[in-house]
Amino acid sequence: MVNLPGELEADRVRTLAIAVQVCHPGEVGAARLPATRGADILRVSEDPVTFSSAKGGIFLSPEALGPLDVMRQMSIFKDGAEHDRHRGIVAKSFLPRTMLVLDDVIREAVNKALDEVLVGGPDGECDLVRDIAMPVPVTVIGKMLGAREEDAPQLQAWTEEIEQGMTNGESAVSTFEAMGGYFLANMNNDLIRGMECLAKSIGQAEVDGHKLSEVEIATYFGMLLYAGNEPTRSVISAGLLALIEHPDQMELLRTQPALLKPGKSGHPPAALGEILRWTAPVVYFARTATQNVSLGGQQIRAGDRVVMWYPAATRDPDMIADPDVFDVTRAGNEVYTLCYGGAGPHHCQGWFLANRMVWLTMQETVKRLGDIELAGEVTRVRSTFANSLTSLPVRFRPAVPPRPALAQPGHYAPVASPEPVPAAAARPTSHAPKGDASGTPRAASSAPKEAQKPGLFKRLFGGK
């Protein structure tokens, strides 16, 4: 298993990328060739005709998560016009003008989490992964999908199961099945004023005049939950660690918060772009060559797999000066696009939402927690795919006290928000997959009763 900290220098990541091509178990046959330079990754990302997502999938193992024929029903596994039609299902929901209605929802989720860690008194300790970075994105994307707030731990468990499938080449078919039943049962829950439930948009969608199949619906839910939750959580936690390790940069953000705030176009300003570059939350995606081609001096044959290693590209000295310097005032930083899958048709559809969650979470955290310093070992998920922390224990002194609405830990009176806030919410369990560096077992899946929709994937794919 490979563990990829965000602080690896570009040349070390490139060396590791080449090693993974040789060492990762998989089907015998086509070569796995690394793309580690920014220019090469942009070329692959922008040319889906030559470098296909559908032909061999997007992971090191084509059968990761489930049979490739099943995974091809996600838009991220599609090419060309078919990809564009499926991507259009939720396109309106992710327009910048639509995402702006979520600012109050995000801000409330952030401040609710911070209130809980601040209630302990003048000297506080918390885990920034468990207590801040984890609950915010899972709460926001859960509300968008119509999920009940008390089900946040289950959403997190499903996210972790999908991540482990990506890393270990394990099937997550049963997870998709449970998610499909759950979100279809909650598709009429419009929890955000001014936004239709995403589950309804998916459940009622048509492509070329046909309703989506049950399999397409279930895998679509899985893609949205994972993509809306895990990478954002990773940027927040690794970004906060970077600021702790560079206290002068944290002080700049306290005194100049505008460095973090995205404009209405959604493009990240200097500090946010630098945090995205530095943390590189997604480690790789793969493509399959459809014809013989030369890339970065490598001769690639039709059928070869090309693996794009983003942590190397975000520190490519040909793309950015002084790549191993963390500088939140860095101007002209366009490398952050590589953190969203590069350019081209597969650029992350939720990039605007992710930027706003990272901005509001980090801005409020550095404003309300003072004198932040490490209070224990920082641990990471053991994964070839996700560059993610599992624990970031810190001690701090409150800079801004808890809001008066807080009665006691975990109990809140309603505050100004586009929708009612429940009186109590379950805290998501720690993101610690089985056998990871933290030693904490991964949460077992226990889908709500309505999610137990029997037999769908087992009937279609023989119980895989």
Structure description:
This protein is of the alpha+beta class and 464 residues long. The protein is 40% helix and 11% strand. A hairpin with a 2-residue loop joins strand 4 and strand 5. It is globular, with a radius of gyration of 21 Å.
At a glance:
The chain has 464 residues and is α+β, with helices and mostly antiparallel strands.
Topology, element by element:
Layout: H1 10-23, E1 32-35, H2 38-46, E2 51-52, H3 68-71, H4 80-87, H5 96-99, H6 103-118, E3 124-127, H7 128-133, H8 135-144, H9 152-168, H10 173-185, H11 198-203, E4 206-207, E5 210-211, H12 214-245, H13 247-255, H14 270-279, E6 284-289, E7 293-295, E8 298-300, E9 305-309, H15 310-313, H16 351-368, E10 369-374, E11 379-380, E12 389-391, E13 393-398, E14 406-408, E15 411-412, H17 456-461
Parallel strand pairs: 1-9
Antiparallel strand pairs: 2-6, 3-13, 4-5, 6-9, 7-8, 10-13, 11-12, 14-15
Helix pairs in contact: 6-8, 6-16, 8-12, 9-12, 10-12, 12-14, 12-16
